[in-house]
Amino acid sequence: MGKSYTLGETPPHFENKSYDGDSSDDEKSSTKHEETDEPQYVLETPEDKRKRRISLLVVYITAFSFSLGFSIVLTGVFPYLLQLDGSDPTFTEPKVFFGWVVASFPLGQLIASPLAGYVGKRFGTIRIPLFATLFLFTAGMVFYAMLGAIPPPRRYWMLGSRFVTGMAAATVALSLSYASQATTEAERTTGISIVNFSQTIGFMIGPVIQSALTGIGCEGISMGIGDLSFNMYTAAAWIAACLGVLNMIVLLPGIFTEYNIAEKERAMMSKKAKDENRADLSGMKPDYVAVGVCLVTFAIIIFNFIFTETLATPMAIDNFAWTEEEAVAKVGIMLFVGGIISSVCFLFAGPIARKIGERNVMIVCGFIPLIAAGFAYFPYSGPPPVERGNNGSNVTEAPILTTAYSVLTTPWENDTVSMASSHFVSDDTISEVHHDRAYDVPTMLMLYGESQSMPEFFHLKAGGSGGCGGSNETVSPGCPYDEQPWCEFTPAVKVEQFYIGYMFTSIGYPFGIAMVNSLYAKLLGPISQHVWMGFLSASGAFSRVLGPILVSYLYTYGGSQWTFGVLTGLMVINLAILLILYKKLQPKSYIDDGKNVKA
Known about the structure:
CATH topology of the largest domain: Growth Hormone, Chain: A
Structural class: mainly alpha
Keywords: Membrane, Transmembrane, Transmembrane helix, Transport
GO molecular function, one term: transmembrane transporter activity
Distance between the termini: 35 Å
Protein name: Major facilitator superfamily (MFS) profile domain-containing protein
Membrane topology: Multi-pass membrane protein
Organism: Artemia franciscana (Brine shrimp)
CATH class of the largest domain: Mainly Alpha
Low-confidence stretches: 1-39, 390-467, 470-475, 590-599
Helix content: 55-70%
Shape: globular
Strand content: under 5%
Largest sheet: 3 strands, antiparallel
């Protein structure tokens, strides 16, 4: 009996029993069918299905652990960069360079994904390329954790470590291609959605772990080698490296066995079409225009999501005057809550798609919320952000509030704190000396919300060593007017806008990504999808390469209005393309039985 493959519902016209295609067995099967009225065409045994599902479970675990390892360090990359090179006087544009750091990860993914797909197709297995990508992931994370041992400047070495880790992101393409080959046509949307769901769960838990590690502190424990230390940023990288090792273990031959039910289903459908004198469409070529639309749509959805990966932490520091540790912790919690929302959406994506079709789910549940997110983020009116505290005066203005808030006048270690009475006006108004800008308490409430402790937003560091970042200018809360002139006149993004926008993103992103993946796989049909999934992953990686750079430049030189205006505009244009080409995005059934698969 030939090797069989498994997962999910039994396709129409087939019974879950093994089939080897032998002519004598065909005669016996035909005779038995005539005598018992059992279906002639069978796909796999219940035992085969069970084993196939186990193999898919291993791939789901792989997608989860990779995403978890990636997202653990996500919110800490920017402050870690400042810690490594913040004191370097030549490091004048940290956000712009950070855009390149973020872009180096998908650049590695862009190069490695098609290559990994080719290797998987060439050898007929995903185990070999998966081991290679997971080894790169582990090595990249270890290197990232040990950057402090290298003499400065270290930021270029960080670029290298993120590039190597990005090459490991080909794991995603391999996981998706296996989900396509190890599921039947009826199961494919659900199988691919579970891969995306697994990634989302990992992405959700990772930032929470990073937030929990803030207790270690940004200075942590010195390891006695250069500036190497075990701190909140390096601890996350070590955890990620351990996950890479565990991931390789679950892919060992005794645990993971590969199946290809899609190819077997194609062969059976072809035989049935021939036996019934019907047109065999199993060898049909995909509609390349529709496939191209899916690639572009996938890239634009990823580009829209790049904001969170690139700017969430620095934007929180700029607009809300949060400290580094506060931004990492609160953004991490936001990502966790958003991950819960996305997880629920991924779970419902498959069932909803079976009711109304992938195209409708992608447009209504995916694009509409993502466009709404852009409108939610956009700062329409109000005062500009609080200025960063480095104005050359080496003075930190501490607040005195005697109304709704307690008096808080806590100086920082090694810093000079001025309590000059001229800097404060009554209980209702606090005047900042920076650029003669005044902010009253109601305005600050409108900017930052009552949920935050008012004094925190005036902890503007001016003197001393500069803390973990090693530079007063790069680590102080508030918006840097000298680096970003738009800070003086552009309205600040409000905290509630930040949260509401991310809530919409958390709804639209999972539906959009899951449906694009599913449509793409179905449009390709029952062909080997290793290389094609590599192209899909590469399109997302291409967006991740350009996205951080463009978003960083847009934000640094144009401000939040330009950033969210461009992101929203791209989504609107993409939606228009989907509506125009709506009919082309409907995959056809493998067998010409007069019906098309709903999509």
